[in-house]
Design brief:
The protein is mainly alpha-helical. The chain has one domain (9-84). The chain has 3 helices and no strands. Helix 1 runs antiparallel to helix 2, helix 1 packs parallel to helix 3 (43-84) and helix 2 runs antiparallel to helix 3. The N and C termini lie far apart (70 Å).
């Protein structure tokens, strides 16, 4: 009997709330697909969905960090421009 792969649901929810909403929603959908595929008896598909959920969690996390960093840089630039006037 194969073991159920990790569905990364908690991580998917966290990256949806704190990092990048659109990619996090995709991660949640993939996370739910892991359980559906495993309960249907398709462990190979469950493994593939688990890998996809993990990938989308990472994409959401990285996108969130990049977006936050760019926002901070632009905020500092605007503050510097405003202070110089």
């Amino acid at each position: 009997m194969p073991t159920k792969p990790d569905n990364y649901l908690v991580w998917s929810i966290l990256v949806t709330l704190f990092c990048c909403l659109p990619f996090g929603v995709v991660a949640i959908v993939k996370s739910c697909a892991v359980d559906s595929a495993f309960n249907a008896g398709n462990s190979e598909l469950a493994q593939m969905e688990s890998a996809a959920a993990k990938k989308w969690c990472w994409i959401s996390l990285i996108t969130g960090f990049i977006g936050t960093a760019l926002s901070a840089v632009f905020g500092f630039l605007l503050a510097a421009i405003g202070a110089g006037q």
